[in-house]
Amino acid sequence: MVNAGKRSGRPRAGEERLSREAILTAALRIVDDEGIDALTMRRLAATLQVNPMSLYHHLPNKAAVLAGLAELVFANLELPDPGDTVPWDEQLKTAARAYRDGLRQHPNLALQVLSDASVVSNVVVVTMEPFYRALDRSGLAPRQVFEAANTLIDFIHGFSLGEASVRAETFELAPDLLARVQALPPGKAPILTRIVSELGSTGLAYDFDSGFESGLSTLTAGIAATARGR
């Protein structure tokens, strides 16, 4: 006699097509559209039209879902090795741009990924390979490669956090900066006053693409100078 309190082994409608990939795809859609706080296991199950308990066969908790989403974001960052046909500094810039773009495509997730190191711990190894590969070809010593790679990643993470929080291609660094500087007593912060005045109000607008390229070029030039000094 079958116990009415037990479910049969047959999956409910919709559960037979359930997979880890389907769950993560739906989760990413929720996060992109509504933010990380909107993502719950119950909400995810409702979106997929399945029993919430069926999700746990594929992903045991929300933390596992977030880790899986990090994998999706970083999945395309294992760049192929171009060999010596591309200069090391261009390889490094390509890796940095790809890393930033991966985060920029999903700003809601980026804030979570970058504030919780455990989320990216399992995927960071392969995503760092293009950085290490390019830096190794620059001629740096192993310790210098390690430190340079970490500095670059820190730069991209910090930049991406700012970019994700603003959600615009440009913004004004300080809307009243020009007025504040011009109101300073004579001789107070003279260099700042001169630079800001020369730029004017339109020159103080910040463009994220330009800012990223400027910072990346500065870091790359510093790495090249360090390599030449060995």
UniProtKB/TrEMBL annotation:
Residues 40-59 bind DNA. PROSITE patterns: HTH_TETR_2 (PS50977). Pfam families: TetR_C_1, TetR_N. This is TetR/AcrR family transcriptional regulator C-terminal domain-containing protein. PANTHER family: HTH-TYPE TRANSCRIPTIONAL REGULATOR RUTR (PTHR30055), TRANSCRIPTIONAL REGULATORY PROTEIN (PTHR30055:SF151). Coiled coil: none annotated. GO terms for biological process: negative regulation of DNA-templated transcription; response to antibiotic. It comes from the Bacteria. Keywords: DNA-binding, Repressor, Transcription, Transcription regulation. InterPro entries: Homeodomain-like_sf (IPR009057), HTH-type_TetR-like_transc_reg (IPR050109), HTH_TetR (IPR001647), Repressor_TetR_C (IPR004111), Tet_transcr_reg_TetR (IPR003012), Tet_transcr_reg_TetR-rel_C_sf (IPR036271). Residues 17-77 form the HTH tetR-type domain. GO terms for molecular function: DNA-binding transcription factor activity; transcription cis-regulatory region binding.
